[in-house]
Design brief:
By secondary structure, the chain is α/β, with parallel strands linked by helices. It is built from 24 helices and 28 strands.
Length: 756
């Protein structure tokens, strides 16, 4: 469709009646917007994603209960996040866009960039990471890829939707600094870099206010702060009070409310409770979305084979080799029998459950791929070992598996979480594998110690109780429809593992930061860990972990050398170039992810021990070297100041750490930055210590106290710190104070004005 066929938004808006404008703010059915036939405004279709198209051809629902059209099932976010590969995400996005065009879908609902606050969140398989930078970079590339094909996205779930328990009503109680530094940056990056056509508000409340009617979130932060120009849509059924939502910046309610939302909006306008221009603004955003959708060109069909090959590549990059003692992997191409044990090898689990469930175009099983890859060279013997959804061990299956292991040279055991363990709608109860699977592993390992474990899980599982039984572990996450063949390629050495963990695997569930504050009680969940989620928590508490954030082995090795850190620009908007040489020192081709962490040990506020601020993926042949450069911008060094109501870069020393994981730091350097010179404003309620720490405030206070006994009290070696903690307005009332309250008020105003 050409631009000439698009609606003229301004002209249509001028012609619409108030009733028609209000109706545009409501869906027409489960997946479509409202059309206005008399003005040539079509209804457009939105449908579920984000790792594949879920277009329901007949009866519609939002939980994936009814069948959808065949589409490529790429690895869900929990898998592809471990690729740390923005270029791959862009390619997947373009493929998803083409599949949407082939099905006449205007907007694909996704990606989800909510943080993995707790490993028990039932929807973690649909989210990228515990780190906002990694999640934001990958999601931004995915959105750009999809929208490059003329198809919109819906960035979700905005915001602080980090659990499924009471997700429709729970109030996430989060302080602003934590929101700004942890839970909002991934959204911010996608909005500012890729401008998704739509942003989807979450179900939950944030500090007591529903996201669907939270003007601070939807208008102050999203539109005014980040410059968002697209449409805000509700999650399906997230609207509380429709008129309040319109006033707050929620443009479109989905699915259709059957006219109830329209009636509520019209009633509020008639009562003078909602200005008509708020309706105009929302209607304009809906019309703009329709106009964008009219610009996409139709596609008769997509290349099924090419998209399956891309899904295969994505699966290769998503799997993480956690351990490989004795070089057990890759499996030798010739030799004695290989026992393949575990029903997941034959019946793969490749995606999560709920609204993101895709009807794949085909599914590869690892067992089939291993047999094909070893045909004529090594015998493959299979034993299911367990029934996936059973909680009880089945003695006959266990005995068969042990017998197969006893007769084999090496054993590959496929373990994982049953589909019922993790889904949209409810949270997990624990982090363990099913007990009967662990017991099967122990018995198999007792019969043959050469054990490789392949995991299938959408959320992190603890491994500490059983990993000693497995010299090699391949974390497969959920690898999409091509994951079985990709797993076989990795096991056989046709490709080298290159995935890096996008989340920490703790030693124990009890070590995780949300214990005691998840999933909340009485309709409230308190984010008591603040900034310290994921590796930030484990570092702060010096806790051992099974496998750290960023960890992942390869069939080759990499050396880091010649670190150079250069301050390209200093001041309010610093830029720092970090460069180093990476060399493949092994015998196989492989890919390495260089991770750059920043430390700020002497800040005026608490800061995490280290934070990921940049990364780069590099692919190298054996013996090859490449110079890698990562540029760090101002936000790499900034924190959110609640006093200044903005981002602050404090001058001083910063540490640059470069490594292969958060706990495998290879190179480091220190730099000095001038900072932005921002000073917290002084008020009459500021303490004496705050005045003294202020460059001009300190000079003023010392001057007025000179020769006064109160000065001696403030600087007394034993009691001075206690005195300095008193608000200056209260000290002004002390007998003998040389400062009046009026003088203090005038000085605070003048000093703050100068600072600003």
């Amino acid at each position: 469709m050409t631009d000439e066929n698009r609606i003229d938004v301004a002209a249509v808006l001028a012609e619409l009646t108030l009733d028609e404008k209000a109706a545009l703010l409501d869906g027409s059915d489960f997946w479509h917007t409202q059309g206005v036939e008399r003005l040539g405004v079509p209804a457009i279709m939105m449908t579920d994603g984000p790792h594949g198209l879920r277009k329901q051809a007949n009866e519609a629902d939002h939980l994936g209960l009814n069948n959808s059209v065949p589409a490529t099932c790429f690895p869900p976010a929990a898998g592809v996040a471990s690729s740390w590969d923005p270029a791959l995400m862009a390619r997947i996005g373009a493929a998803l866009g083409d599949e949407c065009r082939a099905s006449d879908v205007a907007v694909l609902l996704g990606p989800g960039v909510n943080m993995k606050r707790s490993p028990l969140c039932g929807r973690n398989f649909e989210y990228f990471s515990e780190d906002p930078l990694l999640a934001g970079v990958l999601a931004s590339s995915l959105v750009s890829g999809i929208q490059s094909r003329g198809v919109g996205t819906s960035l979700k779930h905005f915001a602080a939707n980090n659990q499924e328990t009471d997700r429709m009503t729970v109030s996430a109680e989060v302080d602003e600094r934590t929101l700004r530094e942890i839970y909002l940056p991934a959204f911010e990056r996608v909005v500012t870099e890729a401008q998704p056509w739509t942003v989807m508000c979450s179900y939950n409340r944030i500090n007591g206010v529903y996201a669907s009617e939270n003007s601070w979130l939807l208008t102050d932060v999203l539109r005014r702060g980040w410059g968002y120009t697209g449409l805000v849509v509700s999650d399906w059924g997230a609207v509380n009070e429709r008129d309040r939502g319109v006033a707050a910046g929620l443009d479109l309610e989905m699915p259709s409310s059957g006219g109830l939302g329209t009636h509520r909006v019209l009633g509020a306008v008639a009562a003078g409770e909602l200005p008509e221009d708020a309706v105009d603004t929302a209607a304009r955003n809906v019309l703009n979305l329709v106009a964008k959708a009219q610009g996409r060109t139709p596609l008769e069909a997509f290349d099924v084979d090419a998209h399956h090959a891309l899904a295969h590549q994505a699966a290769l990059e998503s799997a993480v080799l956690l351990k490989n003692e004795g070089g057990l992997l890759p499996l030798a191409p010739a030799g004695g029998p290989i026992a393949v044990i575990g029903e997941f090898a034959r019946t793969p689990r490749y995606q999560g459950a709920g609204s993101s469930q895709v009807n794949p175009t085909r599914v590869d099983a690892a067992l089939d791929a291993l047999e094909a890859g070893l045909i004529g060279r090594r015998e493959v013997v299979f034993a299911p070992g367990f029934t996936i959804e059973s909680e009880d061990a089945e003695p006959a299956l266990v005995a068969e598996a042990v017998a197969a292991a006893s007769a084999a040279d090496v054993v590959v055991v496929f373990l994982g979480l049953p589909p019922s363990y993790e889904s949209e709608g409810y949270d997990r109860e624990h982090m363990e594998l099913p007990a009967q699977q662990v017991e099967l592993l122990r018995q198999v390992a007792a019969a043959n110690p050469n054990v490789v474990v392949v995991l299938s899980n959408g959320s992190a599982v603890t491994v500490s109780d059983w990993e000693a039984a497995a010299p090699a572990i391949l974390e497969g996450w959920l690898l999409g429809q091509a994951g079985g063949a990709a797993t076989a390629d990795l096991l056989l050495g046709a490709a080298s593992p290159s995935g890096k963990l996008a989340e920490t695997i703790p030693v124990r569930f009890e070590d995780n930061p949300a214990v005691g504050n998840f999933p909340g009680e009485h309709g409230v969940v308190r984010y008591g860990e603040g900034l310290l989620i994921g590796y930030r928590w484990y570092d702060a508490h010096a806790l051992p972990v099974s496998y750290p954030f960023g960890h992942g082995l390869s069939y080759t090795s990499f050396a880091y050398s010649d670190l150079a850190v250069r301050v390209v620009e200093d001041g309010a908007s610093p830029r720092v170039a970090v460069s180093l040489t990476v060399t493949n020192t092994g015998a196989a081709a492989g890919a390495e992810v260089v991770q750059v962490y920043v430390t700020d040990a002497a800040a005026s506020v608490y800061r995490p021990e280290q934070e990921l601020r940049g990364f780069a993926r590099v692919e190298l042949e054996p013996g090859a070297s490449e110079r890698v450069e990562v540029e760090l911008g101002a936000r790499a060094f900034a924190f959110w100041s609640t006093a200044a109501h903005g981002w602050v870069v404090e001058g001083g020393a910063f540490g640059i750490r470069v490594g292969a994981s958060s706990r495998d730091i290879r190179l480091s350097a220190d730099i000095e930055l001038a900072g932005d010179g921002a000073l917290a404003p002084l008020t009459v309620d500021s303490t004496a210590a705050e005045f003294l720490a202020h460059p001009r405030g300190g000079d003023w206070l010392r001057g007025v106290l000179e020769g006064n006994p109160m000065g001696a009290m403030l600087f007394d070696e034993q009691h001075g710190r206690m005195m300095q903690a008193i608000p200056l307005v209260r000290l002004a009332r002390f007998p003998g104070s040389p400062i009046s309250e009026q003088q203090l008020a005038e000085a605070a105003a003048q000093l703050s004005a100068v600072s600003a």
